[in-house]
Amino acid sequence: MSTRTTILFDLDGTLLEMRTEPFVAQYLQELGKYVGDRFDAKKLLTLIWDATKAMIASDDPGKTNEEVFTEHFLQTSGLSKEEIWPVFEAFYRDVFPSLSHLTFPSPWAKKIVEAAKAQGFQVAVATNPVFPKEAIYSRLAWIELAPDDFELVTVYEEAHYTKPNPAYFQEICDRLGVEPTACIMVGNHMQEDMVAGKLGMKTFLVTNYLEDRGEPVYPVDQRGTLEELYQAIVNRTGVFA
User: Helices (H), strands (E): how many in the chain?
Assistant: First the structure.
């Protein structure tokens, strides 16, 4: 049996306790408010959604998610990057960090990551890289963690794929220099996280904020609450043995 050396942690709904859909809806509402009269907020949000879908659909190894998003957004909006990007950047810098009240951060995340490192695991954040670095780092800060606590944090400036594309997980392995069979994917989403099993990763499904769209269903090696995840890591049981 190969030794599992690396744990990939999903962020939203896993380490950061939250319900993803209401969070995204609320955050886009805040963005719309922030944009105010400068642009038609409703139209802008539709354009953002469409560009995000283009990013999720993309299978181009030559383009980062950011490049796909930017290209699609600018083509469909008719806006120039100079007009709109400073607005987005200011929002992520000044407003986004204050949205932690839309989530339910608990001390479990920090305890789990620290326990994993104490057990000698390499740890990475495998969050869907459809957000800029700034937004992902803010969400880590809400659980008192930082990018430096991990070997890798996937962000849209660097990643070329998104979940549930298996190529997303393969790219993480390539960047970390590990085989998928040496990894354990820990996440709360049946379709987006458990798909990692297709590459030979072991999987742990976190049940506190479980998300499941019904189809497709993937085999799960182990499941449990954040507390059970912590115990399994500390005691080296199940997929962490």
Answer: 8, 6
Question: 6-19+103-240, what's its fold?
Answer: Rossmann fold (3.40.50)
Alpha carbon distances (Å) from 46 to 43, 73, 115: 5, 10, 41
- Beta strand spans in 71-166 (E): 122-125, 152-153
Closest CA to 204 of 5, 3, 7: 7
* Angstrom distances, CA of residue 225 to CA of 8, 135, 222: 17, 26, 11
- Within 10 angstroms of residue 179's Cβ, the number of other Cβ atoms is 14
Sequence ranges of the domains in the chain: 6-19+103-240, 21-100
Is it the case that residue 97 has pLDDT exceeding 60? yes
Note whether 186 and 229 are within 8 A (CB): yes
Confidence band (pLDDT; 50, 70, 90) for 38? confident
- Rounded to a whole number of angstroms, the distance between the first and last alpha carbons of the chain is 11
